Amino acid sequence: MSTATVSDTTPRLSHRLTAARLPRWAPAGIAAASIAVGCGIGAAAGLKSHIQWGLISALLFVLAGYAVSASVEGRRQAKDRFATSLVWVSFICAVVPLVSLTVYTVQQGIGAINGDFLTHSMKGVVATLSPDGGIYHAIIGTIEQVLLATLIAAPIGLLTAVYLVEYGRGRLAKAVTFFVDVMTGIPSVVAGLFVLSLWNIALGFEYSGFSGSLALAILMMPVVVRSTEEMLKLVPNELREASYALGVPRWKTILRIVLPTAVGGITTGVMLAVARITGETAPVMMLVFGADFINSDPFNGPQQSLPLYIWQQYSQINNDFGYQRAWGAALVLIAFVMGLNLIARGIARWRSPKGGH
To answer: Which keywords accompany this UniProt record (predicted)?
Structure first.
């Protein structure tokens, strides 16, 4: 092949490799056009739900993105853009309901949030006739019940995970793993019925915040076990082997080497488990029983909690005051759970190798 032929072929190959690409603004432009066309189709068809408009726009975005990419970049690149479009549509479908729920809760509940609402109980308040009253007794009950459940479930879950990772062999370990998997998917009402039958009916203990904490601990334990187990598995075996080579016994290796290495992930798992049980209603409804007054003793008599308070206030039909209080309590509960998740993420980032430096 002559030098002239090579020089004539090179520009053509370079042009083929670089020219057949959509500009960077193409996905955004296709998305905007799809939204406009989807809304137009929805309006022309008389569809009243904006969700239907959004679904039409999402379908048009995926199809139009594939068609435009196939005509310009070829089918191989079009398939890649098709998969990317599906990922973006799935992400939006997951985020939009969460954002809508949060925004709607803030809109409905922000009007009820004030100093009196956060520092007063419902004692002496006629819920259907007065806008007074608050959630102070429910906040105290929720904090105490969740704290007791954590004190019960966290040590048991931690020790169970240590056994499964460091000692578990044979049929016993398989049985424990099986029951942990079963408990992970157990409905909360089943945990409440179990504690009600054993603790309250069989043993004769009264309704109390501690009874609810027992059910919450049952729900929390498998989450702690699973998260702690995964964190312990991430600890390099070289650390254990080096400790054993120095003559350190296994229990001391676990206590001094393994657990400190995984403490960040373990703490994050416990915090996420706490956030998971904070909003449980069914066990609290059966075991705590609810109260309009402040009861700071979880071992003596009925207590209140935020999920139960929300249900009680919202279940009062045609009661605008109750609806307002319910939305205010829901906003406080969401803020509480969100705070726990932020704390868990902060701990995980602080304990990460990058954060440590």
So the answer is: Cell membrane, Membrane, Phosphate transport, Transmembrane, Transmembrane helix, Transport
